[in-house]
């Protein structure tokens, strides 16, 4: 995967950590500054992603093997139809969840995170930057309950999220940047922008009104 020209930025972390808010904020910021940005997410809105989403709120959770298979099929479709073409066109992709979530969530159910990582990295592009907003699982569950006025779904129970969180904490690699998810929305975005500038030697001065 060395022939790509674009940038793949992945946002990962537990539910309620602020990933989607951050991914959207960063995409807006980079777009405003003239970058050619694509904001995307997994599970996707495609056939396999939809089946996964339906299962999240269902009474009966899929088996681990069924979940793993659907995530892999969904990712294959996502990578082939969107990520690879966009990277080869030089776009900046911001992806809300990717294979690190499969490592963490299916790992917390008993799969081997290293094995999942190896299987994904054999076929799919490794990110240039992996942003992980870190929030203690208890606070994440409170955010889901209080702010989102929602009941935690199958993936969001505290004991399970604590296991998920431990797997995220053990992810290493020179593309990893952890951020303090307890910062306010704007501050957190500011930290992500600083990381972007440092990593890609790209100073994001706002020139839109000059
Ligand atoms: P995730 O995608 O990680 O599940 P969201 O971005 O959906 O998280 O955020 C979960 C909830 O927390 C939302 O109601 C959102 O408005 C709020 N939120 C997001 N980021 C922050 C933050 N930095 N500080 C406080 N609340 C936040
Ligand atoms: Mg989200």
Characterization of the model:
With 210 residues, this protein is α/β, with parallel strands linked by helices. Strands 2-3-1-4-5 form a five-stranded parallel beta sheet, with helices on both faces. The longest helix has 25 residues, at 64-88. It is globular, with a radius of gyration of 17 Å. The protein is built from eight helices and five strands. The protein has helices at 19-32, 47-56, 64-88, 99-107, 113-121, 137-147, 158-169, 185-200, and strands at 7-11, 37-41, 92-96, 129-134, 176-180. It has one domain (7-200): P-loop containing nucleotide triphosphate hydrolases (Rossmann fold), CATH 3.40.50.300. Adenosine-5'-diphosphate binds next to helix 1, helix 6 and helix 8.
> In terms of structural class, how would the helical and strand content be classed?
alpha/beta
Number of strands: 5
Morphology: globular
The total number of structural domains is 1
Can you write the helix and strand succession as a string? EHEHHEHHEHHEH
Give the biggest beta sheet.
5 strands, parallel
Keywords:
binds adenosine-5'-diphosphate, Rossmann fold, alpha/beta, binds magnesium ion, 210 residues, five-stranded parallel sheet
């Amino acid at each position: 995967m060395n022939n790509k020209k674009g940038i793949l930025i992945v946002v990962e972390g537990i539910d309620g950590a602020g990933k989607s808010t951050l991914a959207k904020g960063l995409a807006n910021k980079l777009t405003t500054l003239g970058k050619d940005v694509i904001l995307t997410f997994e599970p996707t809105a495609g056939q396999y992603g939809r089946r996964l989403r339906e299962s999240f709120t269902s009474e009966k959770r899929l088996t681990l093997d069924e979940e793993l298979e659907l995530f892999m099929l969904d990712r294959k479709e996502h990578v082939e139809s969107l990520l690879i073409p966009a990277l080869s066109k030089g776009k900046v992709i911001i992806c809300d969840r990717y294979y690190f979530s499969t490592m963490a969530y299916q790992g917390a159910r008993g799969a081997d995170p290293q094995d999942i990582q190896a299987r994904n990295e054999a076929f799919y592009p490794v990110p240039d930057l992996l942003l992980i907003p870190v929030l203690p699982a208890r606070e994440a569950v409170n955010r889901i309950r209080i702010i989102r006025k929602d009941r935690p779904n199958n993936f969001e129970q505290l004991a399970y999220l604590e296991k998920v969180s431990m797997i995220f904490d053990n992810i290493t690699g020179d593309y990893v940047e952890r951020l303090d998810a307890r910062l306010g929305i704007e501050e957190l975005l500011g930290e992500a922008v600083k990381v972007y500038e440092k990593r890609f030697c790209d100073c994001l001065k706002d020139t839109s009104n000059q």
